Structure formats: structure tokens, C-alpha cells
Amino acid sequence: MRERGTTTMNMQSSAMIALLAAQQAGEAAPPQAAPPAPRHLFGPVIDFLCLGGSSLLLLPLIFLLPEAELKAPLATAMMLLTNLVNHPHFAHSYQIFYRGYARKAFTPALGRAMQVRYLVAGLVVPLLLAAFLVHGALAADTRLLGYAGNLMALAVGWHYAKQGYGMLMVDAALKRRFLDERTKKILLANCYAVWLAAWVGINLAVQQENLWGLAYYSFALPQPLFFLTSAAACLTTALSVWTLAMHWRGKGTLPVTGVVAYGVSLYLWLAFLRVNPLWVLVVPALHSLQYLTVVWRYQLNYEKARLANVAYRKGNLLRALFGPSPVGQMIAFVATGALLGFLAFWAIPLVAESIVPYDRQAITGFLFLFTFWIFINIHHYFLDSVMWRRENPDTRLYLFG
What we know:
Elements: H1 2-24, H2 44-64, H3 67-82, H4 86-97, H5 101-106, H6 112-138, H7 142-175, H8 181-205, E1 208-211, E2 214-217, H9 223-251, H10 256-271, H11 277-306, H12 310-314, H13 317-322, H14 326-355, H15 367-387, H16 393-399
Antiparallel strand pairs: 1-2
Helix pairs in contact: 2-10, 2-11, 3-11, 4-11, 4-14, 4-15, 6-7, 6-15, 7-8, 7-10, 7-15, 8-9, 8-10, 10-11, 11-14, 11-16, 14-15
């Protein structure tokens, strides 16, 4: 036993002597790998402002503006801005979703579950929605068409809420400041609660709205439902604040830009949308800007990856016209989106309005403008619910890759 203990002590002494000799010779221990630097979509300031932070600056300014004098000119300015921001943001979802659609929907290239989602959102939903709108138009049933407007409000509200949650997840992934599963479940439950409370509140506060001369109606919801959904929204909001505070306390950091985007989307753009009449006019453009920031990064990464293929660089008219570079192809993508948005929201419905007969005594507004705008707004939600899922390999590759 004494010999074994002496041997062990000699080995330890030899190791210590060797370590001291290495240090004296200037041989440093191998450095630890530095944690990966946080990434951004376009940069910390641009991300913060475009994903929602600009609302924190604009809303106080809105309250300082004279509502009576500015409501009409601001409405006109926002209507013009829709052609540059709002309508292209809808068009981009079609450009991405239906690009290579045969591979996505009719082969298991992205997995069986994603294949079914692409089939349902890309074929089943638009066919059913179009059939519903055509039936209402042929029957000259303005009340039925009006309920489609309420469905649009429901889908748009959910889209706002889920997009805010998605921005938080994107920023957390880019910054590598991941949230635990419990926190994510609470934040997602809060999305549902705030969305439902906002939709119920609008149905109780506004009996009828007007879109292109056609009225759409609210549902006769019971008043206690508003108190129930509002209580759920308040409870989940408190839980969300608590769990984010606990995460900050435990980890010492949060994806701040994503948290701001989440809060702005749920509260300033949805729950308290009607806090100021001028604010209602501005919010759609801010929501679209948030969406475009992610889509343009996705598209830039897509073009960079695809342009590495020589055959891809040569095989398209747009690449011949705009050049085989990511910037040139982004210009082509944005220009195409603007053109498609103009066609879908204005040109095609207005042409149809002038040449397609329908019962203009029963339907006194612009039927085709109404139905096209309703269709695109509702379908857009279903497209996004497939494209931006974390299970979608394309999203992982081109947004985070």
C-alpha cells in the first residue's frame, strides 16, 4: 500500500512539474471557443425599428396630432402606401408559397405532414373560400357576404397575434437566446387570449362596417363572453410578464427586439388598435413592414443559395434582365410583388367590375373589390400558417441557415 501511494504521489508531482514547465515555456492552454455572435435580419437598429420598435416612437406622436384636420389626408396617404407596402406583403406570400408548388404539395420532399399542409392551404382552402364568395354573389346575399368580412377580421387578428409571436421566435433563434418550453406555451396562450378578447370586443363595439360599399356585420355575442375573454387576456398577460421576468432573472438576457415585436403586435396593433382613429390608419403599414423585413431576408438568403448553382444563374428571364446577383434578383422579387399586388387588389377586380354582370340593385357596392380583398386577407393567413412553421425545412434553411 505504501509503494502504491508513493507511486501515485510521484505521478501527480510529475504532472505538476510538466505543467509548470509548459507555462514557463510560454505554452498557453488551448483557448475556449467563444460563444457564437448574435445574428440579425438586417442589423440591430433596422430590426428593432422594422419589427415593431417604430410603433413606440410613432404612437406618442400620433396623440399629438390634430385628429380632425389630419384624418382625411392621412387616410389618403395610407391608401397610397398600401401599393408600396401592404399589397406587396400579401403578394410575397403567394410568390414564396407557390414557388415550386408541385414539389411541395405532390411529393413528400418536405415530409408528409408538410405535404398535407401545402395541399390544404394551397388548394382546398382557396377553392372553398372562392365557392363561398361566389355563392354569396350569385345569390345576391349581402348578409352572407358580410359575414365573410367578419371572418376576415377574425383571420387578420389571429395573423397579427401569431406574427408577433413568430417575430419573437425568429429573434430568439438569431440571437441564440432561446426561451424554454413553458415560457413559449404561456406566450402562445396569451396570443390566443388577446386575439379572442380583441375580436369579441370589436363585435360588441361595432355592429356594422363598410368595405367598398358593402356592409359586413358583427355577431351578436353575449356580453359575459367579453368579460371572460378579457379576464383570460389579463391573466395570460400577467403570466407572460412574470415568465419573461423569470427568464431574464435566470439567464440574464432576453431577445429584446423580439419581445418588443411580440408586445407591439398583440397590444398596440390588436388589443388597443382603436385607441386613436389615426392609429387605426397607420397600423396595417407597420404590420406589413414587420412582415417584409423577414420575407426580404428569407428571399435574399434563398437567392444567395440558389445562385451558387450555375444552371440556376442562367435559366430564368428575370435573372437575364436583372442580373444573376442577390441584389438584382431581390429587385425583381420586390417589383414582381408590387405588380401582383396592384393586379390582385385593383386592376383585376376593377376590370371585372366593369364587364361581369351581377345584381347591382341588390349589391350596391363594388362586389369584386370587396370579394378580392376579403379572399386575399383570409387566404394569406392560411399560407403563412404553413410557410413559417418551424417544421418547414425551407424556413429553417433560408431564414436561419
